Structure formats: C-alpha cells, structure tokens
Automatic annotation (TrEMBL):
This is Uncharacterized protein. It comes from the Eukaryota. It holds the Pfam family Caulimovir_coat_dom. The lineage of its organism: Eukaryota, Viridiplantae, Streptophyta, Embryophyta, Tracheophyta.
Length: 138
C-alpha cells in the first residue's frame, strides 16, 4: 500500500511543462501507471493528457471531441492511441510553425515562385496555375 500511495502521489504531481520534455513525461508516466492494477482506468488516461501543457492538452481533447461527437472516449482509448495523437499533433504544429517562418521571410510580391515551391514541398498536391495573360473561357 505504501508503494501504491507513493505512485499515486507521484502521478498526481507529474507534469510536462514543455513539449520538448514529452518523451521523459511519457516514459515516467508509463513506468508509474503500469505498476498499478487500475492502469486502464479513464481518469488515469485523462490525467496523462491533462499533464501536458495546457493549450496543447486542450488541442488534443478537441481532436478527440471532433471525432467522437463532442466527447473524449477515455474508456476506449489506449495509451498507444493517445501517444500517437500527441505525436502527430506535435509534428503538425512544428510543421505549421516552420512553414509560417519561411513565409514571413519571403517578400511575397517578389518571391511568389519560391512560396509555391515551399508549399508544394510541404504538401505535395498537384497545383495548376493558368498564365495570367490567358483569358477565362466559360
């Protein structure tokens, strides 16, 4: 019971202050939670998400709410699902930040071709532009 109480106390105080510390947070949380019999209880999964930085945790919850009609289904989520969603969302934010920094560096009036190359390399979709001198024919 002493170990269980100590683990519960450690889990309740565990926080991930910065996303760069996520690997440490995940490893520490999993080490502590998987020693418990109630490891798969919804409140522990919720604690795992709420231990993340506040705005990021809200973003993760909102992703689940969008998929599941306004409810975060902690009962059916696995820790693997949660970690996967966190990693994917973190990468999306990182890529968005990099893209916006690159766009700010460009003078859009002069470097629109560079901008389109950056966008195309980040999101490889086929983009077709008609020359400006071509007239639109209905």
């Amino acid at each position: 019971t002493y170990i269980k109480d100590r683990t519960a106390n450690q889990l309740s105080n565990l926080r991930c202050r910065k996303l760069q510390d996520f690997r440490w947070y995940k490893d520490t949380f999993m080490t502590k939670v998987l020693t418990r019999k109630d490891a798969n209880q919804p409140y522990l999964k919720e604690k795992f998400i709420t231990g993340l930085p506040t705005l990021f945790a809200e973003k993760i919850k909102n992703k689940y709410r969008e998929k599941h009609k306004g409810v975060v289904p902690y009962e059916t989520l696995t820790y693997g699902d949660i970690v996967s969603t966190i990693t994917k969302t973190g990468l999306e934010i990182c890529n968005d930040t990099k893209m916006s920094k690159q766009i700010k560096k460009l003078d859009l009036s002069k470097d629109h071709k560079k901008l389109f190359k950056i966008i195309d390399s980040q999101n490889p979709k086929v983009i077709i532009f008609q020359p400006l001198h071509q007239k639109f024919k209905p």
